[in-house]
Amino acid sequence: xxxxxxxxxxxxxxxxxxxxxxxxxxxxTREVTxxxxxxxxxxxxxxxxxxxxxxxxxxxxxxxxVSRDLLSQGLKHNTLVTIEGLEGxxxxxxxxxxxxxxxxxxxxxxxxxxxxxxxxxxVTIKYRLEIKDSI
Length: 135
Hints:
This protein is an alpha/beta fold.
């Protein structure tokens, strides 16, 4: 009897843990203008490694800043993003000046040469949004 009780407790625990992780996601596609930036005071602020969301940038991170109009499209803090022409998954960690629209800025550490070589181009991005259950 006691073993049966423990078995049901373990099964209940597994089911409840699994249900918390059962979020569903959908990937959206959008064409944006992409530029690049570096963690240098003359490009950002007096604290060039601190983002507008309060994150600290470190070399090697795959991060982007987004124009503020994209925030309302779901590209919020820590949204996963893939960028046409670049490998890997990037995270939204910063937001851009209000003057920009439909634009992302790709973090390229302190490599000014790489940022200049990237330049400005139209790219397709894909970003992951959680599907909200309607009750």
